[in-house]
Design brief:
alpha/beta; SAM-dependent_MTases_sf; FkbM_mtfrase; SAM-dependent_MTase; Methyltransferase FkbM domain-containing protein
Length: 209
């Protein structure tokens, strides 16, 4: 995303944890990144409520997760924060440039499956050409979206999912099976402008190149 942003691409960054979002916002201002938009939301599916509870992992804030997604999030004394929810399809209504995403990254500590379920229209109409996604089978089961189901969602969206395993946590670098057609679609959409990139973690970052 930073590479694309440096070449004029737009970056959509979505971060659930307010404290992390503050650090991101400070970095955006300090580096003068006028084409980076930061959203302080959690990403989920349409069935979720208007907000949810996030648990802060003090020794690794990037590992913070939705309450219940990881065993430690239920322990007493853990700092909890209630954050607003949205879906990628809802963002698509207000940010049509998300249709021009070239590269996407999703790493939301077990909530990847639910986030994908909230992106059915985006994945059907304009899936990113490349997708980096972290899949942790144990966490995905806890959220009701086993890795096999996530694989089916991604396959139906046109991605080559042959490398996805159901037993080991791993970050996968996927691409559209018809990559040439996807690249042509994005190029036609942006014209002389730069394409886009989408990245998610407890944060979701998306960039338009």
């Amino acid at each position: 995303a930073s590479f694309l942003a440096s070449r004029g691409g737009r970056v959509f960054s979505i971060e659930a944890m307010p404290s992390i979002a503050e650090h991101l916002r400070a970095g955006i201002v300090e580096n003068g990144l006028q084409n980076v938009d930061l959203y302080n939301y959690a990403i989920s599916d349409p069935s979720a409520k208007d907000d949810l509870v996030m648990a802060l992992q003090p020794w690794n804030k990037g590992g913070s997760a939705v309450e219940g997604n990881k065993p430690w999030t239920l322990t007493s004394g853990t700092t909890k924060v209630r954050v607003p929810l949205t879906t990628l399809d809802s963002m698509l209504d207000s940010e049509p440039e998300l249709r021009n995403v070239l590269v996407a990254k999703m790493d939301i500590e077990g909530n990847e499956g639910r986030a994908l379920k909230g992106a059915t229209r985006l994945l059907r109409e304009a899936p990113p050409c490349y997708l980096m996604i972290e899949l942790q089978p144990q966490w995905l089961v806890r959220t009701g979206t086993p890795v096999e189901e996530v694989g089916r969602i991604l396959s139906d969206a046109g991605y080559d999912v042959s490398q996805i395993q159901s037993t080991h946590p791993q970050t996968y670098r996927l691409q559209q099976r018809d990559l040439a057609a996807c690249l042509a679609r994005v190029a036609a959409a942006v014209g002389k402008s730069a394409p886009a990139a989408l990245a998610t973690s407890t944060v979701l970052e998306a960039a338009q190149l």
